[in-house]
Amino acid sequence: MSQPVLEIKGLSVEYGLGDKAVRAVSEVDLTLRRGEVLGLAGESGSGKSTLVYGATRLLAPPGVVAGGSVIYHPEAGEPFDVLRLTHAELRAFRWDQLSIVFQGAMNSLNPVATIADQLTDVIKEHRPKGTKTERMVRAAELLSLVGIARDRLSSYPHQLSGGMRQRVMIAMALALEPRVVIMDEPTTALDVVMQRQIMRQLVKLKQRLGFSVIFITHDLSLLAEFSDRIAIMYGGRIVEEAPSSAIYADSLHPYSHGLLHSFPALHGPRRGLAGIPGSPPDLRNMPAGCAFAPRCPKAFDPCETDLPPLTRPADAAGTGDRTVACWLHPAA
Amino acid sequence: MRLRFRMPSLKVTVGLVLLIVFTFVAFFGDALAPFDPSKRSKDILQAPSGKHWFGTTHLGQDIFSQILVGTRSVMFVGFSAGILATLIAVVIGVASGYLSGLPGESLSTISNVFIVIPALPLIIIVTNVVPNSGDTAIAVVIGCTGWAWGARLLRAQTLSLRQRDFVQASRANGESTWRIVVFEILPNLTAIIASSFIGTVMFAVLTEIALAYVGVSGISEWNWGEVLFWAQGQQALAIGAWWWFVPAGLCIALLGTALSLVNFGIDEIVNPRLRSSGRAVVKAADGRKVRMQIGFTPVLSQDSNVNKGSAAR
Question: Where in the numbering of this chain does the ABC transmembrane type-1 domain appear (chain B) (predicted)?
Answer without folding.
Answer: 75-263
